[in-house]
Amino acid sequence: MKKILSIALLVALMVGVLAGCSTTPPTAAPAATTAAPAGETTAAPAAAGNFKVGITIQSLENSYWAGVFGEVETLLKAKGWEYTILACNDNSATQIQQIENFITNEVDLIMVHPSDPNAIEDYLKNARDAGIKVMVWDDKMTNTDLNWVLDNTKLGYTIGSAAADFINAHFSADNKAQIAVMNYPQTPILLERETGILNALKEKADGKYEVVAQQPALDAQTALSNMETIFQANPDVKVVCSIGAGGDIGANEAFMSKFGGKVPEDVGIFSADATQQQLEAIVAGQASRASVGFEGSNKKTAEAVVDLYERLLNGEKFAEQNLFRPLLTIDAKNAAEYLADYK
Fold this sequence. Notes:
This protein has helices at 2-18, 63-79, 92-104, 117-129, 152-170, 188-205, 220-233, 245-258, 276-283, 298-313, 335-339, and strands at residues 52-57, 82-87, 109-112, 133-137, 146-149, 177-183, 209-216, 237-242, 268-272, 288-293, 322-324, 328-331. By secondary structure, it is of the alpha/beta class.
């Protein structure tokens, strides 16, 4: 529990640092600032040849987003760009206001991780009409220059396939695995992931498992609390499938507590995101067994997305509006290799 609380405090600190952060290049001369909307900070204009970027994402309350955008901030600061990174806390009205503020502040590029894609289409059109480049993370939208997306059903299927292989190795029709799913059906793309997970389990391990609980959990603290509740009703749950890092980390903490730090071989968590903490758990032989990552680490993901910012800002036209990210299953065989990139 102490470990989870420490994570929550760290993320809260990062939210405070990132929510409304701007930089000025070290060589830029001081300049007067202007009043900014609540929650945002302005700074002296960027030097010639640099850019001004506005970023709004659903949340910074999980280790994946906090980790990636901590690295993004480092890269933007090194470039000397002005930037603002905001979380809308999964509230579309808040996100709309953030987008409108970016337009008013005449940023060069807006990147959005949508809370509700349908709610912001017209506002992204307004941004493009104002000459602002628009990039969306995770959703296939219309009024954008580029959508950086996952095939979320395929991602879920990849998670479920890893879990099915584990179930086939440790369970049978006479000894079925009890499964808990950490989901988030409120968000369409995460519902797609859950659907992919369930499809893979049905196709590859049919008759050898039963899903006994499905609980929403984006952050580790919620997942820990949910797993403790699940254990009260279903003490024999041994497999967890999670749509993201938060569900994995919280469930792992619950299993570690339940088994006194010595997790049996037939207990496993299968998830997405492959954050540093998830990879450390895999390497240490804890309940986390496999996680599907993308570029390989927070640092590599940040480098990839900032590279896309720069290409858009320099006028590159992409052949396809939807640019799909790779999928990479990280487990005990290769986790140490990818964990090294976090050091």
